[in-house]
Input
Amino acid sequence: MHDDTDETSSSGTRSWLRHLPLIAIGLVALTGAFFLGDLLSFETLRDNREALIAWRDGNYALAVAGFMAAYIVIVAFSLPGATVATLTGGFLFGTFPGVVFNVVAATIGAVLIFLAARAGLGRRLSKGMDTSEGRLKKIKDGIRENQWSMLFLLRLLPVVPFFVANLLPAMVGVGFGAFAVTTLLGIAPGALVYTSVGAGLGAVFAAGETPDLGLIFEPYILLPLLGLAALSALPLVIKAVKGRKGLT
Output
């Protein structure tokens, strides 16, 4: 005789296990926001710069692996300090290959939080949107139909918080491949800017100054980024124009 109680219990256990990664990320993120804000800072980098350089010079491969592992953890758990980590990548390894280490580590961290969110709330929310009516379903369908353009826009527009761009695609059922590729390519321009700033930190430290982190909003940086965003949005514009012509 089939036991419905056991089946319900098993289903509930599986549901709970699917939520564990997202719960862990939330708990670590909250803990990090309270206790790591001052630790993962520019001041910490400045005060420990000589020890970091000695560590890099002593074992370059280990330094690269350790740096990337730390960066992945920062992104995957949405900890404060991602910008400082990017600067550190430039400071320790130069613009190149520092930007490669930064982009790859940030992408891996983003993929991990994307998978955790999709395994937890993402699939349930995605199914709920599929069965819903009205504006909510239209939003999801719009993102699905134009996911490459939408994902690139999320990455290229500097006003969209990084963790939002990691979680939102999971909530609307975006494919893993599209998310990973657009993250890798979409964050590269901004990462290049901050990595290059990090590469020049030696002179900044020597002068007793702080880096200009608002550099990305300077016209000669922001305008090319907005141009890339506009290029990403072009398929959306073309589709909207075709749709209107079809209605007339």
Summary: Residues 128-132 have pLDDT under 50 and may be disordered. Residues 115 and 134 are 27 Å apart (CA to CA).
